[in-house]
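Field reference: sequence -> structure
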Amino acid sequence: MKLVVILSRVPYPLEKGDKLRAFHQLKELSKRHEIVLCCLNDGKKPSPETLEVLRSIASETHIFQLNKIRIFANLLFGLLSSKPFQVLYFYQRKAHKQIASIIEQANPDRIFCQLIRTAEYAKNEHDYYKILDYQDAFSKGVDRREKKAKWPWREIFAMERKRLIAYENIIFEYFEAKVIISEEDRRFIYHPERKDIKIVTNGIDTEFFAKRGKEPAYDLVFTGNMSYPPNIETAEFIVNQVLPALKKQRPGISVLLSGSTPHKRVQALDAIEGVTVSGWVDDIRDSYESARVFFAPMQIGTGLQNKLLEAMSLQIPAVTSELANKSLKGKDGENILIRNSVEGYVEAIESLLQNPEMATKIGTKGREYVEKNFSWKQSVDVLESTF
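Structure field:
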């Protein structure tokens, strides 16, 4: 088949969850289908290396540089709109006309849109069979942020939540097939036929994320895009709430916060004793394997956490929250430790640091669980069944 794929970001390098999902899906799909790739881009122009990587998975790559002034105008006038701000952020009429022209010339068998952010570019292409990857229930993610926010952000998040709930429902009707990352996220798409949305989980490259035997230099590590609000809040929760409690039992405990574009709030944590903020690293495996325990006490956010899959694949024993485990569905005490309070996290971390045999068992079982349940081939096989 010939597929026109529309993404809200250039899917390389792999420093964000949606980019990782898109890249690996396209890499697998390109083995059997011709890909015409259309990427929106609100950042700097892609490097030659990025373009070379994209050429390996797509017969054509079109990148649409979003105008920053137009983004600002969309958001400003969006106060009078009913569409979600993050849909307005990524929509520009010039890019829409160009994508429509590409679709007409390509005459694809299928159009595949990742995230509701791109839905406006394809929703009225009625002559084509269209697939939408919701990926996450954005409305629920914003709902969790709203509950923790202060004025005026609480009111802004409340407005966005209501718009997202309506849009996620309405956009369902424009696409012939729909997929999402987990059953938990599907529950929060408020459409009477939401059970028709297929579950397409993320996968993991277990050959790449395989234990290399590096000697750990830190006790704990947390990784992720450190400009992403749920990761910022999790980093602050680790350092400001869990770390002081751990220090009472283990004064010399050390924490690594590793990931791209750390927000100034994350950068500030580097000044605290025992905390290191690394920023971008060339090989994220080095960050995972530099610690004895992977700690991801996610407080907000939706979807399946790639960071957990990667840590478990590397046999790093992981401690996480009930929220983060809803999509992962790990088994507490067997392949992961699941807690929901500062006291619980301290107990779990201490048990792993004090008991190397237990840590090894959790790490080994974590790897086995990921190998059995998560692969990109399995994921894309389900996606292809919607074509």
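Note: The domain at 218-373 is CATH 3.40.50.2000 (Rossmann fold).
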